[in-house]
Every structure is written in structure tokens, then in C-alpha cells.
């Protein structure tokens, strides 16, 4: 396997370096969007071609400070596999590790507490089919009752059971977990969910939302799926956001 010597002097494959750059870009997109949460919350990705290795943000840094080289490689239990001056928020990785461990398609996981998504997670009925983006998700979201901060392993069984075959789990009174096979798909899904929640909240503030019928939701989801069928879903949007990030700061590439 080809190797690249990164600035951290940590020897790695080209695939790992590419995954590091894409994940660092994702953190910067989230920072640019205002979807950061002090030094908390996590976006994780599996290291390609390496079983049981994941990349996570260094604990203590803001999303806008994440670079390809300062991401930390960890095992499924959150133990460091690469040298770093920073620690890992092991508690924050508990639910990520659960999904990475048990779902073969969980290559990327995003969990954040944006105001709009956390607000809808905290609302009776959760996301309602009352706007364009929300109709994307009708029937595709799972919900999990709040049990306090998600650091106890024994909650894992219920998290998996409640997720079922969906790949977005709305943690009630908390925030969403978005699970996807690639980072661009995870980001575009998170973006659409964020927009659905923002618009639902704004609509509820303004008046009575119009509920879309199941027949129309079915047509919407069928046609949307066909329109979005591309070789690399989410890539065009991801690349456009990366160009915006680069206008602010290109250091994520280092
Ligand atoms: Zn959380």
C-alpha cells in the first residue's frame, strides 16, 4: 500500500490521508454553517482499508481548528492509534462506537446539537411532513427517548433497537445522529434535516402548518430518489461548500 508522510510524522496510507482531508473539510463546513458546539460534538469516519480504525476530532479544538493532520485515529473503544497532543472525548464517542461496531454501513456518523434539529428532537411528534425537506424524511426517521447523557453502554441495545432499519436517529430532548456510507451523503442529509427543522419551527411560529398527505409524500420521495441518483450523491454540494470554506481558510488541508 502506498504511504504518505503527513506533517504529524505519522505514517499512513493515501486512503487515510484522503479520509482525513475529507473529514477535516466536513468539520470546516459545519463551522462555516454555524453548526459547531463549543468544543463538543463529533463527526467520525472509518479509516478506509483498516478494520477497527476511525478518525475523530481532537478534544479541545473548535470545529474551525480541525485539520487533516490533527484528527485523531482511534480504535473502536476510543483508544488513540496515532500520536496527538490532544485527547479524545471518549464519552462522546460511546454512541458513535456503538453504531460503527454494529452497522456494517455506518462509515460516517454525524452527531451535533444544532438549535433547529435539537428543538425538533425536543418537540412532541418530532419532524412533521409540513415542508419540502421534511417530506424527504417522512417514515425515515427513528426516535429514542431521552435517558440522560448518552455515555452508558447499557443504553446501546435500546439505541440500536429504536434505530431499526433507518439511518437517522432523533435522540429526543437532545439531537440527531446521522449515519451514512460516505461523508458527502452524511453532510447532504444533515443539511436537508437542518433545513426541514428550521422551516418547521419557523412555520409553527407563524401559524398552522399544512400537513402533506401520504400520497404526495410517496410521489415526492419516489421522484426525489430518481432525481438524486448519481454516481457520487452529495459530492457536488460538498465540493461547493468546500470552495466556500477555502475562501475563509485553507488550513484544513494540512
Ligand atoms: Zn449529544
UniProtKB/TrEMBL annotation:
Listed Gene3D superfamilies: Class II aldolase/adducin N-terminal domain (3.40.225.10)
SUPFAM superfamilies: AraD/HMP-PK domain-like (SSF53639)
InterPro entries found in the cross-reference section: Aldolase-II_Adducin_sf, Aldolase_II/adducin_N, Aldolase_II/adducin_N_sf
Domain Class II aldolase/adducin N-terminal: 21-201
Domain of life: Bacteria
Molecular function GO terms recorded: actin filament binding
Cellular component GO terms held in the UniProt record: cytoskeleton
Record-linked NCBIfam families: PRK07044.1
PANTHER family, sorted: ADDUCIN, PROTEIN HU-LI TAI SHAO
Similarity remark: Belongs to the aldolase class II family.
Name the UniProt record assigns to this protein: Ribulose-5-phosphate 4-epimerase/fuculose-1-phosphate aldolase
Amino acid at each position: 500500500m502506498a504511504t504518505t508522510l503527513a506533517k504529524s510524522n505519522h505514517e499512513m496510507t493515501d486512503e487515510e490521508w484522503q479520509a482525513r482531508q475529507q473529514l477535516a473539510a466536513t468539520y470546516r463546513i459545519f463551522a462555516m454553517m454555524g453548526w459547531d458546539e463549543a468544543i463538543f460534538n463529533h463527526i467520525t469516519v472509518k479509516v478506509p482499508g483498516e478494520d477497527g480504525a476511525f478518525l475523530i476530532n481532537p478534544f479541545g479544538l473548535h470545529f474551525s481548528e480541525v485539520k487533516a493532520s490533527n484528527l485523531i485515529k482511534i480504535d473502536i473503544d476510543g483508544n488513540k492509534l496515532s500520536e496527538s497532543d490532544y485527547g479524545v472525548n471518549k464519552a462522546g464517542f460511546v454512541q458513535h462506537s456503538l453504531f460503527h461496531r454494529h452497522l456494517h454501513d455506518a462509515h460516517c456518523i454525524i452527531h451535533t446539537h444544532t438549535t433547529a434539529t435539537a428543538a425538533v428532537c425536543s418537540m412532541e411528534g418530532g419532524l412533521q411532513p409540513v415542508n419540502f425537506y421534511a417530506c424527504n424524511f417522512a417514515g425515515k426517521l427513528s426516535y429514542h427517548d431521552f435517558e440522560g447523557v448518552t455515555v452508558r453502554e447499557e443504553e446501546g441495545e435500546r439505541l440500536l433497537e429504536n434505530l431499526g432499519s433507518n439511518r437517522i436517529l432523533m435522540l429526543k430532548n437532545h439531537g440527531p445522529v446521522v449515519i451514512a456510507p460516505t461523508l458527502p451523503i452524511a453532510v447532504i442529509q444533515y443539511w436537508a434535516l437542518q433545513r426541514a427543522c428550521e422551516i418547521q419551527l419557523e412555520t409553527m411560529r407563524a401559524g398552522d402548518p399544512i400537513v402533506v398527505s401520504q400520497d404526495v409524500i410517496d410521489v415526492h420521495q419516489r421522484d426525489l430518489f430518481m432525481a438524486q441518483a448519481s454516481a457520487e450523491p452529495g459530492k457536488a454540494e460538498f465540493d461547493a461548500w468546500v470552495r466556500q470554506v477555502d475562501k475563509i481558510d485553507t488550513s484544513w488541508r494540512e
